[in-house]
Amino acid sequence: MADKSVAAALNPKKSVPIMKWVTPVIIGWLVPGGGHIYQGRMQRGLLLGISTIVCFLFGLLMRGAFFEPQTGDLLTTLIYTGGNVANKMVGIPYFLATWLGYNQADLAGHVHDYGTKFLAGAGLLNVLSLVDTYEIATGQKD
Amino acid sequence: MPKIALTHLETAILFALLISVVLGVVTKKTDRDRLQYGLYCFACFVGTIFGLGWLMKLGHG
Which of A77, A91, A83, A142 is nearest to A118 (CA)? Predict the structure, then answer.
């Protein structure tokens, strides 16, 4: 008991109000790099945003396919549902592309295949940016 | 919308470059460390691309 109170005194848990990080994280999700720009990290925000959007645009130009959620065996569920989530993590560029009618079928060929990976990869890059945004907002990182 | 057709090597290097930029920016605290880590990641990716490429070529005989 005494050990716990000593440990708590040495490492006090900071409770960060949700409103402190939720706004930059949502902005960062919708506009890649936007969370950093909102937090005043213009240079980092631009680098992250440009990298993510270039990745997404190359995916479109290579005619990659968006993942549609599918269920079945574990691997199928993981790949297709996870891929669909990764696609959506790009934010507005993804919703804009689908709204404008981009609907590429999943074709054979290495260019299409790379395009599909670029589209999902762009979402994963944005997830990394969002984690960084969260850490900046909660004071874990400068 | 135009369609581009890159080779395996061009696509893999482009992907490595974009990932290296993001990894460099989000993992380190100073600009110098970010640049160094980004370059390190890129070098590792390119080294792996060529290493695996040669491995596959030699494996095919």
Answer: A83
Q: Note whether B6 and A113 are within 8 A (CB).
A: no
pLDDT one-digit tens code per residue, B13-23:
999 999 999 99
Q: What is the DSSP letter of A14?
A: P
Terminus-to-terminus CA distance in chain B, angstroms? 41
pTM above 0.90, yes or no: no
| A91 CB burial (10 A radius; 0-12, 13-18, 19+) | buried
Residue B6: inside a domain, yes or no?
no
CA-based nearest residue to A56, from A107, A121, A127, A131: A121
Which residues from chain B sit within 8 angstroms of residue A125, using beta carbons?
18-19, 22
Say whether residue B6 is in contact with chain A using an 8 A CB cutoff. yes
Q: What residues in B contact A128, CB-CB < 8 Å?
A: 22-23, 26
Radius of gyration of chain A (CA): 19
- Domain of B28 in residue numbering reads as 16-60
> Each residue of A83-134: pLDDT tens digit?
999 999 999 999 999 999 888 887 788 888 999 999 999 999 999 999 999 9
User: Total domain count for chain B?
Assistant: 1
Comparing CB atoms, the residue among A55, A111, A129 nearest residue B18 is: A55
Task: Name the DSSP class of A136.
Answer: H
